[in-house]
Amino acid sequence: MLNRYPLWKYLLILLVLVVGLIYALPNLFPEDPAVQISSDRGEFTLDERRLDRLEDSLDEAGIATQAIERQPQSVLIRLRHADDQIRARDLLGDSLGEDYVVALNQAESTPAWLESLAASPMTLGLDLRGGVHFLLEVDMEAAITQRLESDASAMRNLLRDERLRYRNTELGERSISMDFMNAEDRDQARQLIAPEYPDFDYSNVEKTRGAGLEMTLTDTAVNEIQDYAVNQNLTTLRNRVNELGVSEPLVQRQGPNRIVVELPGVQDTAAAKRIIGATANLEFRLEARPDTPESETETFPFRDNEARTATLMRDVIITGDRVSNANRSFDENGRPQVNISLDGTGGTLMNRATRTNIGRNMAVLFIEHNSRERTVMKDGEPTTVRTQDTERGIISLATIQSALGNSFRITGLESPTEAADLALLLRSGSLAAPMYFAQERTIGPSLGAKNVERGILSVQVGLLLVVLFMLVRYRVFGVFANLALGFNLTLLVAVMSMLGATLTLPGIAGIVLTLGMAVDANVLIFERIREELRNGLSVQQAIHAGYERAFSSIVDANITTLLVALILFSIGTGPVKGFAVTLSLGILTSLFTALMVTRAMVNLCYGGKPVKKLWI
């Protein structure tokens, strides 16, 4: 019989609509304005008495709170009014001092029964929810210095393996200088080193005592090192951001030596800077023997006790870039540790160094590059001057009991948080060169509130105009199309929420476009029904022909648009991707509602019934 659906199709449509409604519901519960208190040092401690005093201070200032929630490494204070966020942040920041970070935040208010079904609202992008914006600058000079240090260490190992004696090694801005006992030793060293290191220009240096060899990096090599440093840091930052679990982050290169990082929804700047801006790395070195020449050793303090020091060999066994995996755990005494797994080359180098030095101490050296800003008066005006310094400290100094391979552990860490951060940094990869914060900006959630309101208003206006047009043009069938349009919007929001897609301003534009395009299919169907009625077909035959004959045109038109959206998603970045996601999902939900939902409603009203006239 024409225009009748089997029962299973009606049940399928009903099931899809119910599931869509449930997973779209969390978006009707707006996030609560909140302030988050966390520690600037990673470990968080805030006793109940002090927390009560902070709550009393907020009450005295006329700032109404909804709830105070303790989290593993922070405290979240929910506020009743968004206008109080900045006042609350400033008040709490003054009360707590510099040891704590008070940041604006948004706290989810999804009911527990929806959370039990894994239903959550859509993630909002930086332009809607706020977040942090960092502009980091790569230290090009440090990149060259690190390359020179690495090459100098490898050259010394090469000379020792060939039993060629050298007296001193010095590093310049772009050069390595080595002294030898005589010209014959220098010439042999040059013949040995030059083929292995073609990125240097070599020149002999005459000295009153002995002979010298100077190796200078070529301009091409310098450019390659600097370009590699930026690209490697870019990759490492992306890995770190992925470890943080931030939705739709932006990490991209800007100019020759800068990288932009934008983290939507992140308001805890201390945690973000601790991970994103950390330039930590590890070096594994042997402890120097008492008879080792001073030119081949360096002395470093311990991180947990600067009064205690140890003298280490200049030569590095491996660095953190040989780490393939790292995880935090606890030893048999409950102290934090990091389990390390090395790649093939790192495991080979570690085994070679330790199997011939059993009973000797090996140190894990923690290296961190810091940038500090201070204001000085220059020409009568305050000027910000940035200085860089590198801190090196020994994490652990342990005796080699047996030859090590690809897996071992690092102990001597101060806290579980430090162990977790170190594991994350090693797991995501080390930086090829230090980076410094050239610009830091926090975008509060209140700035995105107006964007959300305007975006919702644009959707409402677009929806209203489409609804009015369909009602005036197609009457009863216009009602069917409008109901399907509402279902379409519900399904689109539900699918985006279920997939964890991020909604941005361009994404809202994609939703508005989807609403306009969604009725195109119904227009084609309804106009075809009108045409079939004019050609003399009965009502039931006209309805059936309208849906069947318009089907191929609708699918063809939407597939071409879907292909364009997929191309935009594959080659676009940031806002373009947000637009492509909503457009792609909107096309799929539009096909479902236009072809199945409206057909189901028409069948329920007219299917199998004697109808003489259609209000279309």
TrEMBL record:
GO terms for molecular function: protein-transporting ATPase activity. Coiled coil: none annotated. Residues 2-104 form the SecD export protein N-terminal TM domain. GO terms for cellular component: plasma membrane. Pfam families: Sec_GG, SecD-TM1, SecD_1st, SecD_SecF_C, SecDF_P1_head. Residues 298-433 form the SecDF P1 head subdomain domain. One of its GO terms (biological process) is protein transport by the Sec complex. Residues 230-287 form the Protein translocase subunit SecDF P1 domain. Keywords: Cell inner membrane, Cell membrane, Membrane, Protein transport, Translocation, Transmembrane, Transmembrane helix, Transport. The keyword Transport applies. It is a multi-pass membrane protein. It comes from the Bacteria. It is found in: Cell inner membrane; Cell membrane. Gene3D superfamilies: 3.30.1360.200, 3.30.70.260, 3.30.70.3400, Multidrug efflux transporter AcrB transmembrane domain. InterPro entries: SecD, SecD-TM, SecD/SecF_arch_bac, SecD/SecF_CS, SecD_1st, SecD_SecF_C, SecD_SecF_C_bact, SecDF_P1_head. Belongs to the SecD/SecF family. SecD subfamily. Part of the Sec protein translocase complex. Interacts with the SecYEG preprotein conducting channel. SecDF uses the proton motive force (PMF) to complete protein translocation after the ATP-dependent function of SecA. This is Protein translocase subunit SecD. It comes from Halomonas elongata (strain ATCC 33173 / DSM 2581 / NBRC 15536 / NCIMB 2198 / 1H9).
